Amino acid sequence: QKEVEQDPGPLSVPEGAIVSLNCTYSNSAFQYFMWYRQYSRKGPELLMYTYSSGNKEDGRFTAQVDKSSKYISLFIRDSQPSDSATYLCAMRAKTTTDSWGKLQFGAGTQVVVTP
Amino acid sequence: DSGVTQTPKHLITATGQRVTLRCSPRSGDLSVYWYQQSLDQGLQFLIQYYNGEERAKGNILERFSAQQFPDLHSELNLSSLELGDSALYFCASSVIGLAGSTDTQYFGPGTRLTVL
Fold this sequence. Notes:
The complex is a heterodimer of chains A (115) and B (116).
Chain A: E1 4-6, E2 11-14, E3 19-25, E4 30-38, E5 45-50, E6 54-58, E7 61-66, E8 71-76, E9 85-93, E10 104-105, E11 109-114
Parallel strand pairs in A: 2-11
Antiparallel strand pairs in A: 1-3, 3-8, 4-5, 4-9, 6-7, 7-8, 9-10, 9-11
Chain B: E1 5-7, E2 10-13, E3 19-24, E4 31-38, E5 42-50, E6 53-57, E7 64-68, E8 74-78, E9 87-94, E10 106-107, E11 111-115
Parallel strand pairs in B: 2-11
Antiparallel strand pairs in B: 1-3, 3-8, 4-5, 4-9, 5-6, 7-8, 9-10, 9-11
């Protein structure tokens, strides 16, 4: 079983809809959670970063973390065709002896926003 | 633009050859990370350097090695290349990246390696 599970999609939504993405994880040591957006053949771009349970909002993006359920979500409001990309969740432990900076990524969900 | 630069953008080579990928971190970042992204394996952590020292190792093959220089740029060396090494290789950087730090990683545009 992978440490981080993420549905690869594709997830197709009409323009203006809310995009809902999520990841589950099994390692209770994970304390820092990120969402990256990756356009085709480009480098992942950091969208959201949080290290506490609850919601964090930034513009049209809301990240949600539920550590008790080991579940994180990303919501994109008023989706645009330019939001079409692959969204990767990533997480890391607070302190480990052998992987201080190691990020564990989900497989990525491909999102297609149709005009 | 994340501020992380990588060269070259594309690299085409033959099996058995050796290549070097280069990364310059964001200004002020001390940690550099290397990742491999292939279609079947997703984004896999390879190795981390902090201020010139190796600090964490992931699924890096023995044929691969890396180093970080005094000016903080990093190079990833891939030798005895195989067809399966064809992938996107990303470099990321962060301010610190050590135990207890809350910083996170910013990725470069990647190097696409094709082994024929």
